[in-house]
């Protein structure tokens, strides 16, 4: 039996990546690698200044127009990614807004493994 036939977990492909922008300049900073209520991992093409505070904006795709989530975060560390030409940077959020918290909860729910309902 081939591997795809044995797979019991459905793969989800997001139609968009969560892109992070500098809120002041509206220039792209990179993509979210992962998120938590306290922080995020940003994947970018440039290393970021450790200790600096950044004003960031997430543009969440919507049906009519993107929804913006604005927040501030401080870069805790930055290092080269395993992929040449990319860098991973860890950020601690400064007072995350409610819509950021809702997004983290929604992503956690979307990507969690829930037990299948069984019929008795």
Q: Could you describe the 3D structure shown?
A:
With 120 residues, the chain is an alpha+beta fold. It has one domain (19-108): predicted glycosyltransferase like domains (Thrombin, subunit H, Beta Barrel), CATH 2.40.10. Helix content is 15%, strand content 40%. The chain is built from two helices and six strands; from the N terminus they run αββββββα. It has helices at 3-6, 98-111, and strands at 19-22, 28-35, 39-44, 53-60, 67-80, 87-94. Strands 1-2-3-6-5-4 form a six-stranded antiparallel beta barrel. β1 and β2 (28-35) form a beta hairpin. The longest helix has 14 residues, at 98-111.
Overall pLDDT score: 80
Helix content: 10-25%
Named CATH topology: Thrombin, subunit H
% residues in beta strands = 35-45%
Fold topology:
Layout: H1 3-6, E1 19-22, E2 28-35, E3 39-44, E4 53-60, E5 67-80, E6 87-94, H2 98-111
Antiparallel strand pairs: 1-2, 1-4, 2-3, 3-6, 4-5, 5-6
Pfam families: PilZ
InterPro entries: PilZ_domain (IPR009875)
Organism: Pseudomonas guineae
